[in-house]
Each structure stands twice: as C-alpha cells, then as structure tokens.
Amino acid sequence: MSESKAKLKPELGGQAVIEGVMMRSPEKLSVAVRRKNGKILLKSEKFTSLTKKNKFFNLPFIRGGVVLLESLYLGVKTLSWSSKVAVSDEKNEENNKLQNNKKEFLSNITIWFTVFLGLAGGILLFFYLPLILTDLTGLKSRFYYNLVDSLIRIFIFMTYLLIISNWKEIQKIFQYHGAEHKSIYAYENGNKLTVENALKYTTHHPRCGTSFIVVVIIVGFFIFTSLGRPDNISEKFIRLIFIPVIGGISYELIKIADKNKNNKILRTISLPGLWLQKITTKEPDESQLKVGLVALRSSLGENLNNEPDVDILNS
Length: 315
Hints:
315 residues; 5-stranded mixed sheet
C-alpha cells in the first residue's frame, strides 16, 4: 500500500487491559479479553470523540488535552470491565450473568472521579514532588534548576515503571500492550489482519502513551525554563496551568513525528519514548495477539459473529 493511501486510513488508538486489549476507531470502541475457558469475550460500542463532534475541540494544541482526558476516561472504564470479567471467571460465573449485569460497571460519575484522583496523584508525584526536591538543591540558575527538576521527574517515572514491571500481572498487561502495537502496525501497513502478519512487527509504536509522557517531559523542560525558577507557591501554580499547553504541544509533535518518520529531527524526538517501550511492552504470544486483532477488527466494523472462538457481548 502506498504512503498516500495509508494516510487515508482511519487513525486508531488502543490500550492494554486485564487479559485483553481495547481498540478505538473514529466511530467505534471495542474491548476483547481472553477468558479462563480459552474463548475471547468481545464488547463493543459506538464512540465518537469530542474532537469530531466540535471543531473547537479539534483545534491544534486544544485537541491534545481533549484526547488525553477521553483516553483516561475510556482507560478506567475498559479496565473496570476487564477486571469484572476476570473476577467473574475466578468465581466461575456464567457469561449470561455478565450480560445481565452490564449496567453494574462503574458509573460515569465514578469513572470521572477515578480519573480526577489519577490526575491529582500524577501531579503530586510527577510534578510537585520533583519541584520540592529541586528546591532542596538551592540552585538559582533557571536552566540548571529546570534541568534537575526534569531529571528528577524522569528518575521517578523510570523507578515507578521498573517497580511495577516486576509484577507478574503487569508483565502480562505489557504483553497485551505489545499485541496492541503489533496489531495496529499490521493495519497501518495494509496487511490482512492475521496473527501471522502481525507477528513480524515490533512492539514499539511512536504514538504510544509512553512516548507521549517522554515528549511531555522534554517539552516541559523548555517551557518551564522559559518561565524561570519558581520562587513561591503562586509561581509553582502558574507552572501547573501550563501543563495543558505542554500536553497540547506534545500531542502535536507526536502526530507530526508519526506522519514524517523519515525526518531525522522528529525521529530523534521519538527515540526516547521508543526506548522506554522496551519496558512497557513485551512480546505477546499468538493467543494474546489474536485478542488484539479481534479488538481491532471489531473497532473497524467487521462482523465477527462467525468466529468460533469469539463470544460477543451485545451493548
């Protein structure tokens, strides 16, 4: 498939969940999870981003923040659903009980509250704590102050990833993360969506959320350096206000880098995030890759009713 035709393909996003993968196309969201009985349970629903519903939300540097909030919301929602499936399997509950209890999953209010707590915790750990630790150094230079602040932020983030990557449950999620990326690569390259075709691709993708976080840290260093050294609470609060700006710029950079893979400067910007994916993605087995492909095919509108190993949970 030519590059010009590839660019016309709908852009997909995804996320690993417990024993599965969530895939999102411009019009549909699908979650597929591997059950204890070996079958794949598939749940899908219509979903249209606010960036498609409202022109303002699709403006450059605005859409990044909107996409981030939507991703957090959908991430919590699909993780909740996949955990319910896992728990039901542990208790040997039947699929029809899942069908009847679909509305018992987290309410929208609870999901947004969880997103809020996650954002608040992230700001405290990755934003405020590095500032406190950097203040202790007594650095006066705006450049070195912000450099140390960024390095501490990277250190905390890396330590966090290395700690959780040792958990068996997280390692399996990282494998499904790899399955998500391999599936998307097969789609983007115009291959038939089979396990054999997807296996050959890398688990590292430039549009990954891991890459986004790394770019946010890099962009944040330059933005915060231009703001100087924060000497009081109000100046630290001003930095907090700039976080959406940094997120918006980072989102645009990742989109540009993904569309211009041969540009050396943009490729260099993407490299740290791709390196970090050596931690956050693992090579999936064929069974896990099949789950990612089922979620992907469903999100593209393919009818999977005749798949013998797929149970479809109607929305």
